[in-house]
User: Fold N6-adenine-specific methylase from Limosilactobacillus equigenerosi DSM 18793 = JCM 14505.
Amino acid sequence: MRVVAGEFRGRKLNAVPGMATRPTTDKVKEAIFNIIGPYFNGGTSLDLFAGSGGLSIEGVSRGIAHAVLVDRQYQAIKTIQTNIEFTHHPEKFTVLKRDARRVLAELASQGTQFDLIYLDPPYAKQQIIDDLAKMQELNLVAPGATIVCETNTEANLPATLPGLTCVRQATYGITVVTIYRAD
Assistant:
């Protein structure tokens, strides 16, 4: 795993040890950013199931000003922190060891809105639609925000959701990337 483009291009990233997480491959990561960017002029991102932190680090490398990474596993948090050290810009990241669904109210109480949201939950726990509804209810989704959902082929995310429009869906082997834009 590596950073594909931007300020941190070419830096190698560690994967979370064990089988509890499934890192986004470089091919899928590059495809995602070619669709949504490929570069950004600031903004804030949220990664609710951060794993190794690769998507958020890639986003910051490509111009996102600040990334919030959430994961509940100790090994994932440790890996994220190590990977952030490789960037030499820890101030651009906030890492939270929390349950993804419980952290949303905490983030809302801070008045934060996110311009880019990554949702890549464990395939066995496909609750993306509920997570998106909760984020909208708590006003965490900035107007015009981009939401990147990474699922398996069985998830079948809908083309439209209240307040969101699907702008692209692509399949890469067993991985499906669905990208929504907030109205």
In short: Residues 26-182 form a domain with the Rossmann fold fold (CATH 3.40.50.150). The chain has a mean pLDDT of 92.
